[in-house]
Amino acid sequence: MELKEYIRIIKNNSRLFLAVIVMIILAAFGYVYTRPVRYDSSLTLNITRTGTQKTDQFRYDNFYRLQADDKFTETVVEWLKSPRIAEDIYKNAGIDTSKMTIRELSKAVKPEKMSSQLVLVSFSAPDTATSKKISAAILKSVNDNANALNKDQQDAEWFQILSQDPVTVKYHMDPGILLAISFAFGIFLAFWAVMLKHYFSQD
C-alpha cells in the first residue's frame, strides 16, 4: 500500500483519528495531575575515615589510601543497589515494604559514584518529612554495614560515611514535554485504530 492510500484512509476516518489523539492527551494530563504528590530528593554521602595514620614513612601522597577509599565508595554504591539494604532503609524510615517487589526495592534508591569519596543518592518520597527519614535511614544503613566489616579488625582508621540534609523538590512534569509525548503517542495509536477499523470494514 502506497503512502497516498494511507493518507486517504486517515482522511476518511479523520474523526476517529482526532478523537484518539485527544483522548490520549486528556488521559495523560489527567493521570499526571491527579496522581499522588511526589517529592524527589538528592542526598550526598561523603566517604571519610575515623582517624589518620601516624607514620614516619613516605606515603606517596596517600596513594594507596585513596585507592582504598575509591574501592570502598564503589562498595557503598553496590550496597545501595541491593534489595536487602533498600528494605532495611525503608523499615528504618517507618515505610511498609510488604507490597513491594524485589525490582521495586532494587530501584528504591539510585546511587551514583561522583568521585573516590563522594556518592550521590536519589530517591522519591511522599513528603519532605519522609524524605528526611529515608536520608537518616540511608546514612545509618551504610554506616552499620561499614562497621560490620570492621567488627573483627577493629581498625581505628576505618571508613565513616557523613551526610547533610537532603535537597528535596516537588516533582512536576513540564506541560510542554507532556503534551509533545502524549501527542506523539496519540498519533501512533490513532494510526493503528484507523487501520484496524479500515481492515475490519473490508469484510
Structure overview:
Strands 1, 2, 3, 4 and 5 form a five-stranded antiparallel β-sheet that branches. It contains seven helices and five strands, in the order ααβαααββαββα. The model has no long low-confidence stretch (mean pLDDT 86). The protein starts with a helix and ends with a helix. It is an alpha+beta fold. It has two domains: 3-35 and 173-201, no CATH class; 39-170, Alpha-Beta Plaits (2-Layer Sandwich), CATH 3.30.70. The radius of gyration is 26 Å and the shape is elongated. α2 packs antiparallel against α7 (175-201) and α4 crosses α6 (128-149).
Task: Describe the structure concisely.
It is built from seven helices and five strands. The protein has helices at 3-12, 14-34, 63-81, 83-92, 102-106, 128-149, 175-201; strands at residues 39-49, 109-115, 118-125, 159-163, 167-170.
